[in-house]
Amino acid sequence: MCDKGCQYDVNLLARFKVQFPDLAPLIEHLVVVINKLHLQGHKEDCHIVKAPQLTKGCGRTDGEGVERPWPHSNETAKITQDQNPGHRKDTFDDTNADWNYRKQVTMGE
Ligand SMILES: [Zn+2]
Prior knowledge:
Bound molecules: zinc ion
Order of helices and strands: HHHHHH
Pfam families: KDZ
Low-confidence stretches: none
InterPro entries: KDZ
Distance between the termini: 37 Å
Helix content: 55-70%
Region (Disordered): 57-96
Strand content: under 5%
Radius of gyration: 17 Å
Number of strands: 0
């Protein structure tokens, strides 16, 4: 069982060439990897081809950093459900900026 990362990676470049041709040259350099915790749920091939620790230039990461803000975003979603689209976007921008700021100032702790 694979997730969106593996599924979208198959035709990603072809789709960008059709739908976003200006961005296609960037996608040619994109390497899709799967976060270490999520990798356990993938096919055996993905454990080699999509593993961050086996991908050149990926460095030492678990790749889970993109997942960590989700609980925070879910709480924000609850408080913004009655807001208009503009106000909702502003609230998400503010809370995401706060998340990024807190992440930066606590790095190395
Ligand atoms: Zn996979």
